[in-house]
Structure formats: C-alpha cells, structure tokens
Amino acid sequence: MPIKIGIPRETATGERRVAIDPFVIGRLSKLGIEVLVEKGAGKSALISDSQYDGATLVDNAKELSEKADIIWRVQAPTAEEVSIMRPGSVLIGTLMAHNNIAMLKALQDNKITSYAMELIPRISRAQSMDILSSQAAIAGYKAAIMGADIAPRFFPMLTTAAGTIRPSKVIVIGVGVAGLQAIATAKRLGAVVEAYDVRPETKEQIESLGGKAIELTISAVGDGGYARELSKEEREQQQLELAEYISQADVLITTAAVPGKPAPKIIPESTVDGMKEGAVIIDLAAEGGGNCALTQPGKTITHGDVIIHGPLDVASQVPVHASEMYAKNLFNFMQLLIDENGDYVPDFEDEVVIGSLLTKDGQVMHEATVELLDKTLGEQ
Ligand code: NAD
Questions:
Q1: Percent of the chain having pLDDT more than 90?
Q2: What's the gap in Å between 17 CA and the centre of ligand 1?
Q3: How far apart are CA 312 and CA 70, in angstroms?
Q4: Among 31, 170, 273, 354, which is least packed, fewest CB within 10 Å?
Q5: Per-residue pLDDT, 226
C-alpha cells in the first residue's frame, strides 16, 4: 500500500521553514502517496493551508504522528515529539544527533527508523539531495545582503552629479558552497570582491565569478575534498598574512568550516583592531562558534568602529525558497526509499541510504553516533 507522508509544523525557536512545497505534493500524489500536513505548517514560510492542494490537512501534530508512516521535518524533533510517533514509523530531517542525545534515545525507545539528511554522502549522484549545499547557498546569498544592509557604504561604484563613489571591497573567507554564493551576490551588487580558501582549487572558482583570489603560503587539503584543520603554526601564519588584506575590507564575510570540528578561528582581535572604521564582519560560521574570535553567536556587537554580526539559522530567514529547495532535496532522497507504486522499500545496499541511516527500528546504525552514545552513557 502506498505510504502516507506527514509534515508537522516546525517547533524550533525562530524556524520559519517547512519541509514540504506544493510542487512536491503534486509529485508525491502522482506516485499515489498521500501527504498529510499539520494545519498552519507553512504559515511562516508564507504558504497558506489552501495552497497545499492535494494534501490532507490535519489538526495537530499528535494526529499527524498517529496517521503518518513517514514524517518529514526541517529541524530535529524534541524527544517528546518523537515519543508521539507511531512505533516502527520513519523520520527524515536534519537530525544532528550529536547535539541531541535525548532525541536519539527517544528514537531508540520508540523503535523509529530515521534518516539524517546532513549525513548524506556528498557524492555527485546525491547532489540533488544535498541539504547542506542547498541551505548553504541560501546562507551565502543572505550574508552578502546582510553585509550590504549593515555597511555604512554603498557596494557599487556610483557616478552621480554629487561625485563618484568608489565601490566597496568585500572579502570572503572560506569558499565552499556558501562562500561562492556570497562572492556571486556581492559581485552582482557591484562590490569589488576578493576571496580566500585553504583549498587551492578554489582559485579558479573565485575567478570564474569575477573575484580575485587571495593566495597565501598555506594550503590545507584534507579528505574527500574538504579542508583539514591547520596546525598552530599554520594558523598563526595564516592570521598574519590575512590581516594585511582584511585591513582594506569594507565587508568581511567568513564561512570557513572543517567537518566535525568547531569553526576555525581565523580572525583574531588584533586583525579586527586593524580594520577600517565602519567595516562589517558577517560571520556565517557563528553556528560553529565563529571564525572571528570576537563573534557572539546570534548577536550583533561593535568592537571599536567595527560591527560584528554572528547570525544563526540564516537559511530560515529566506523561508520561501529555503523550504522549496529543502522539500525538493527530500523528494529526491525519497526516490531511493520507495518503488514505482509508492511503497516503502529502502535499498540498504545503496551507499546514500546507508550513509544517512541514523537508526533502524530503533537501533543506532551510524557508526560515529554509536561511539558518541557509548561515550555519553559511559560518563553517566
Ligand atoms: P564547508 O562548509 O565544510 O567549509 C567552507 C569552506 O571553508 C571550505 O571551502 C573549506 O575549504 C574552507 N576552510 C576550512 N578551513 C579554512 C581555513 N582555516 N581558512 C580558510 N578556509 C577554510 O564546505 P562546503 O561548502 O560544505 O564544501 C566543502 C567541499 O565539499 C567542497 O570541496 C565542495 O566542492 C564539496 N561539495 C561536494 C558536493 C557534492 O558532490 N555533493 C556538494 C557540495 C560540496
């Protein structure tokens, strides 16, 4: 029998996205899959209940959890929200189990099978399911807009009757998905853009977007195309070489991350002290503690005449398109879990399925999470 997919209203503080989009409902319906949506689920993403054509509206999360075979979410549920799910049902979302042991235990207790979208292997075949990329692209775009908004200067060059205004200089540090989108957006707004990453292959990508690559003496390519953590000496050298460039920036956007580690500290206080009056730092790495030593996650502070903004959950601030892209990522992932009749038949031989499988009927399957859980239980 075709499955029922349930979409609850997101309950995390400040979360504005929703895990479904009217277009995806149409695609699921064609497969014979029934979609249940909790009333008001799309409200903060500006999707009214009446736009969920073809879906069944459900009064509350409890009723939804009782009826659905598979629940789609943006953010991880609380342990209480897992406890109202039907034993043996399936959860798919950004689960971040390492930050959420109570939820993990509830998944075990309630014998839930769960797939963590952030664990999907970043291979070419899985690009259409990659929520890290879709949401990071949104965050990068928004970071450039935030920089332009907070800065006391124009981004573009303006030639006016009142004289010619020089364009702002934007420096982007960390040229992954978010960094590339920040470069592209700042360029579109007319800024002069320079960018830096420890992975040398980013030079060509920066230049293809019209930016200038900052080349330092440090290179730090790690496993799987990601950066590795720098040694203390390399970090000091990097800070020293970068400070010179950063002193010229009107807006500095930092996005550097190393998988599984806190955000690398790249901008010490001394570098901020050397920045221009009115310069702005948008620290997109705030979620992981920040790339700037002075960043306070979730806050905007001033240090001397420099404004340091450490936004959290940035993709949620563009909820319409963030929801649309997230829902399409989920739909593409679902293709690996269902057959042409809309039945749930996951292929556990598939590396994308097994790579994202957090729990199966309550048993923790993801190796790093098993180790974390053992460690946590050992400490109790
Ligand atoms: P990320 O968010 O993990 O990190 C952002 C950037 O920070 C990276 O470019 C990284 O090199 C850089 N960085 C780390 N430490 C730094 C330091 N000390 N100084 C300066 N920069 C530093 O990156 P991401 O956007 O998730 O992408 C990482 C990699 O994954 C890239 O190689 C990208 O091409 C690849 N990727 C693959 C797929 C896919 O095939 N499905 C999808 C997206 C990204």
A1: 89
A2: 24
A3: 28
A4: 273
A5: 80
